[in-house]
Amino acid sequence: MGAYGERVAVAYLIEAGMAVLDRNWRGQSGELDIIARDRDTLVFCEVKTRRSQRYGVPEEAIRPAKVRRIRRLAAQWLAMTRLRPPEVRFDVISVLPQPTGAAHLRHLRGAF
Questions:
Q1: How buried is 17 (Cβ within 10 angstroms: 0-12 exposed, 13-18 middle, 19+ buried)?
Q2: Which pairing describes strands 30-38 and 104-108: parallel, antiparallel, or unpaired?
Q3: Of 107, 110, 103, 104, which is closest to residue 93 (Cα–Cα)?
Q4: Which of 10, 58, 74, 98 could crosslink 94 through cysteines, CB 3.0-4.6 Å?
Q5: Which of 98, 112, 15, 109 is nearest to 49 (CA)?
Q6: What are 25-54's pLDDT values in tens digits?
Q7: Which pairing describes strands 87-96 and 41-49: parallel, antiparallel, or unpaired?
Q8: How far apart are CA 100 and CA 97, in angstroms?
Q9: What is the value of pTM for the model shown?
Q10: Sign of the Cα pseudo-torsion (64, 72, 41, 37, in order)
Protein backbone atom coordinates (compact mmCIF):
# COMPACT_ATOMS: atom_id res chain seq x y z
CA MET A 1 0.00 0.00 0.00
CA GLY A 2 2.82 2.40 0.88
CA ALA A 3 4.67 1.81 -2.41
CA TYR A 4 1.44 2.48 -4.34
CA GLY A 5 0.94 5.78 -2.49
CA GLU A 6 4.50 6.85 -3.18
CA ARG A 7 4.13 6.10 -6.91
CA VAL A 8 0.94 8.19 -7.00
CA ALA A 9 2.67 11.01 -5.08
CA VAL A 10 5.73 11.01 -7.37
CA ALA A 11 3.54 11.16 -10.48
CA TYR A 12 1.59 14.05 -8.94
CA LEU A 13 4.75 16.00 -8.03
CA ILE A 14 6.25 15.56 -11.50
CA GLU A 15 2.95 16.64 -13.07
CA ALA A 16 3.04 19.72 -10.81
CA GLY A 17 6.45 20.63 -12.24
CA MET A 18 8.64 19.48 -9.39
CA ALA A 19 11.85 17.51 -9.92
CA VAL A 20 12.23 14.36 -7.81
CA LEU A 21 15.81 14.17 -6.56
CA ASP A 22 15.64 11.09 -4.34
CA ARG A 23 13.18 8.44 -3.13
CA ASN A 24 13.19 6.15 -0.11
CA TRP A 25 16.48 7.52 1.18
CA ARG A 26 17.59 5.62 4.27
CA GLY A 27 19.39 7.41 7.06
CA GLN A 28 20.47 6.43 10.55
CA SER A 29 17.01 6.67 12.10
CA GLY A 30 14.61 5.95 9.26
CA GLU A 31 13.62 6.83 5.72
CA LEU A 32 12.69 9.93 3.75
CA ASP A 33 9.93 9.11 1.26
CA ILE A 34 10.52 11.76 -1.42
CA ILE A 35 13.02 14.59 -1.81
CA ALA A 36 12.12 17.02 -4.56
CA ARG A 37 12.93 20.47 -5.90
CA ASP A 38 10.18 23.04 -6.35
CA ARG A 39 12.01 25.83 -8.17
CA ASP A 40 14.55 27.07 -5.58
CA THR A 41 12.95 25.21 -2.69
CA LEU A 42 14.08 21.79 -1.53
CA VAL A 43 11.07 19.73 -0.42
CA PHE A 44 11.13 16.78 1.94
CA CYS A 45 7.84 15.02 1.35
CA GLU A 46 6.28 12.44 3.66
CA VAL A 47 3.65 10.23 1.99
CA LYS A 48 0.85 8.66 4.02
CA THR A 49 -1.45 6.14 2.37
CA ARG A 50 -4.51 4.55 3.95
CA ARG A 51 -7.18 2.22 2.58
CA SER A 52 -9.94 4.23 4.28
CA GLN A 53 -10.57 7.08 6.70
CA ARG A 54 -11.88 4.67 9.32
CA TYR A 55 -9.18 5.76 11.77
CA GLY A 56 -8.87 9.34 10.48
CA VAL A 57 -7.22 10.94 7.49
CA PRO A 58 -3.75 9.64 6.59
CA GLU A 59 -1.85 12.79 7.58
CA GLU A 60 -3.11 12.45 11.16
CA ALA A 61 -0.66 9.54 11.53
CA ILE A 62 2.25 12.01 11.56
CA ARG A 63 2.92 12.62 15.23
CA PRO A 64 5.51 14.98 16.77
CA ALA A 65 8.08 12.17 17.10
CA LYS A 66 7.77 11.44 13.36
CA VAL A 67 8.23 15.14 12.57
CA ARG A 68 11.42 15.25 14.65
CA ARG A 69 12.72 12.10 12.93
CA ILE A 70 12.02 13.53 9.45
CA ARG A 71 13.80 16.78 10.35
CA ARG A 72 16.85 14.86 11.61
CA LEU A 73 16.90 12.73 8.46
CA ALA A 74 16.61 15.86 6.30
CA ALA A 75 19.65 17.34 8.07
CA GLN A 76 21.57 14.10 7.41
CA TRP A 77 20.58 14.14 3.73
CA LEU A 78 21.65 17.77 3.38
CA ALA A 79 24.99 17.05 5.07
CA MET A 80 25.59 14.04 2.80
CA THR A 81 24.76 15.90 -0.41
CA ARG A 82 26.29 19.21 0.71
CA LEU A 83 23.41 21.07 -0.93
CA ARG A 84 22.60 24.48 0.50
CA PRO A 85 19.19 25.40 -0.89
CA PRO A 86 17.88 28.91 -0.20
CA GLU A 87 14.70 27.39 1.24
CA VAL A 88 13.62 24.05 2.66
CA ARG A 89 10.03 22.91 3.05
CA PHE A 90 8.37 19.88 4.63
CA ASP A 91 5.25 18.65 2.83
CA VAL A 92 2.83 15.80 3.41
CA ILE A 93 0.95 13.99 0.67
CA SER A 94 -2.08 12.03 1.78
CA VAL A 95 -3.28 9.25 -0.55
CA LEU A 96 -6.61 7.43 -0.33
CA PRO A 97 -7.11 4.80 -3.07
CA GLN A 98 -10.62 4.68 -4.52
CA PRO A 99 -12.54 1.55 -5.59
CA THR A 100 -12.58 2.88 -9.15
CA GLY A 101 -10.67 5.68 -10.80
CA ALA A 102 -7.81 7.77 -9.50
CA ALA A 103 -6.79 7.87 -5.87
CA HIS A 104 -7.81 10.87 -3.77
CA LEU A 105 -4.66 12.86 -3.08
CA ARG A 106 -4.17 15.84 -0.78
CA HIS A 107 -0.92 17.86 -0.80
CA LEU A 108 -0.18 19.83 2.35
CA ARG A 109 2.63 22.28 1.57
CA GLY A 110 4.68 23.39 4.55
CA ALA A 111 2.86 20.91 6.79
CA PHE A 112 5.48 21.21 9.55
A1: exposed
A2: unpaired
A3: 107
A4: 58
A5: 98
A6: 999 899 999 999 999 999 999 999 887 667
A7: parallel
A8: 8
A9: 0.90
A10: negative
